[in-house]
Amino acid sequence: MNICLALSGGMDSTTLLADLLDIYYPDQVFCLGFEYGSKHNKYEIKAAQAIAKHYNVKYQLLDLRNVGNILKSDLLLSGGKIPEGHYEDENMSKTVVPGRNLMFASILAGYAESNDCEKVALGVHKGDHAIYPDCRKEFIKALDTCIYLSSDRKVEVIAPFIDMSKIDICELGIDLEVPYELTRTCYADQEKSCGKCGSCVERLESFELNHEKDPIEYV
After folding, report:
1. CA 184: distance to chain centroid?
2. Distance (Å, whole) CA 101 – CA 123
3. What do you get for the CA distance between the two ends of the chain, in Å?
4. What is the fold, at CATH topology level, of the domain defined by 2-208?
5. Which residues contact 55 (CB under 8 A, 6 or more apart)?
6. Which of 154, 176, 182, 216 has its CA 20 to 30 A from that of 192?
7. How many CB atoms sit inside 10 A of residue 106's CB?
8. Would you kindly state where each structural domain of the chain is located, as residue ranges?
9. Above 70 in pLDDT, residue 64?
């Protein structure tokens, strides 16, 4: 049995990869990355490549920058300033990229069917629900049905972290000895993480509440 997932280079997808490797062999796991024109994309991609190398899994980067050019979001290079504050604050809705997870999942589904993968794994979690509609339970349920039917019942969608918080994911990752020093979470277009955007704030909170120090450097 094979499985594929989107490896962004962040905490969630990296922890999901580590968790899956408790079940699958590295040659059964296929990771896809997407270059879609976000402010932090180049740093994410670098992180994902390092993580794939660490775990010795296949990683393939797909160029979707032309698609990103037609979308509006402050997360994109064409958008406004990245908002600061907590991940669940209303202003973080400015970082929603319309249809992003739907597009990524569709590509993953096609890849899965073409490469004998029975499952598409997504790292969405409970903390995403407030701001991102394509991370909510009802969306994942509908997506699973859609992909299952479109693949003639060959491929299903799983989201193991759907009821977990970032704190829970961090705790699991610590237990799995995830190399969080290789990951990229910050939304800002800069080498070092800002520590102020919603994504950074949530990350720092998850380590603090697990009584651990975040291993990456901040500005």
Report:
1. 10
2. 11
3. 43
4. Rossmann fold (3.40.50)
5. 17, 18, 21, 26, 29
6. 176
7. 16
8. 2-208
9. yes
167 with 212: CB under 8 angstroms? no
Beta bridge partners of 157: 120
CA-to-CA dists, residue 24 to 54, 95, 125, 177, angstroms:
16, 33, 21, 17
Q: What distances in angstroms separate CA 36 from CA 75, 139, 164, one per listed residue?
A: 10, 21, 27
Crossing angle of helices 166-175 and 11-20, in 10° steps, is 50
Question: What does the DSSP assignment read for 79-101?
Answer: S-PPPBS-TTSGGGGGG--TTHH
Q: Which amino acid type is present at position 2? A: N
pLDDT digits (tens, 9 = 90+) for 104-129: 999 999 999 999 999 999 999 987 76
Over residues 180-192, the pLDDT tens digits come to 999 999 999 999 9
Dihedral Cα 184, 177, 5, 183, nearest 10 deg: 10
What's CA 78's distance to the chain center, in Å?
Answer: 21
